[in-house]
Amino acid sequence: MSRHTVLSLLRKAAINTALGVTAIAARTIRVIVPAARQYDCVVAFAGAAARGASLAARASGRSWTGADYHSEFVQHMLCAATRHGGIDIKVLLSGADILGEIYRRHGHAILCTAHFGLTLAIARALADLSIPVSGIGKVQPSMSGWHWGVPERLRIIASSPYCFVRARRALETGRVLVAYPDDGVYDDTDGRPVMVIKPNLFSFAARLKCPVLFFGAKLAEDGAILIDIVRPDHAFPQTAADARGLAEEFFAFVSARSKRPCRMEPGRRTVRNAAQERPLVAAE
């Protein structure tokens, strides 16, 4: 067994241990710490765990920094701590005026992001704006509750060949749809982790003539979660060419923010029906 393999295994063991410890700590904080201080305690504990994880990463040659792990552990702890009630997280939203104007005019929108970490905080930001939200994703036990300080359970549309049929219904009822057009991260043929972008969502938006915005999230030095909403040039797709342009813009958006290489792939096969071919109308 090579030295690199041994170091990689040790790093993975250290990270998995840290994730387990932070999950237990998050639930403990949720029970014993006063509500006003819970979020600050989560950020502080995640920071301590991140320092240890970053040492293990440097020892194995991984490029992640303490800040990267801090963001990762805060996300992990919030998912554990906020599952059964509202924890008062700190979210700062940039671009609320962009979203607000589009939502007032159209009554719906699609918000696209990638697996950067902390992006689920958008649910709290939209709740503060009184904008109802649904999301597309894998339905997991960790998602079956109240997350990220929102006043109601998150509505998750399970990823499937039928998800766009259900997504249209959500948009028709005046909800904003949060979607991840990337396939997360997995090892490429040469062993490198990559982020794979699928263009299906942008074709779906063009068929419905639904406005599309991008957003990212990161952890600020004071522990607040910063979310920035960006309006792409093809924010109002009408044609297949617009959908391709939107996909290219999203690819550039993700590439600029990710530490991992990105790759664009053909879209998956999804179920379409006659309703999906009709443009949306503004919700009443």
Please describe what this structure looks like.
The chain is α/β, with parallel strands linked by helices and 284 residues long. It folds into two domains: 79 residues, no CATH class; 187 residues, no CATH class. It has a seven-stranded mixed sheet with strand order 1-9-8-2-5-3-4, sandwiched between helices. It has a three-stranded mixed sheet with strand order 6-7-10, with helices on one face. The radius of gyration is 19 Å and the shape is globular. About 2% of the residues have low confidence.
Descriptive terms for the model:
7-stranded mixed sheet; 8 helices; alpha/beta; single chain; 3-stranded mixed sheet; globular; 2 domains
**What is the N-to-C order of secondary-structure elements (H for helix, E for strand)?**
HHHEHEHEEHEEEHEEHE
Task: List the quaternary state of the chains.
Answer: single chain
* Gross morphology: globular
Question: What is the strand arrangement across the widest sheet?
Answer: 1-9-8-2-5-3-4
Uncertain runs are 269-275
Largest sheet: 7 strands, mixed
In a nutshell, what does this entry contain?
With 284 residues, this protein is an alpha/beta fold. Helices cover 44% and strands 17% of the residues. Helix 2 (35-59) packs across helix 3.
How would the blueprint of this fold be written?
Elements: H1 3-32, H2 35-59, H3 66-81, E1 91-94, H4 96-106, E2 109-112, H5 122-128, E3 133-137, E4 155-158, H6 163-172, E5 176-179, E6 182-187, E7 193-197, H7 200-208, E8 212-219, E9 225-230, H8 240-257, E10 262-264
Parallel strand pairs: 1-9, 2-5, 2-8, 3-4, 3-5, 7-10
Antiparallel strand pairs: 6-7, 8-9
Helix pairs in contact: 1-2, 1-3, 2-3, 7-8
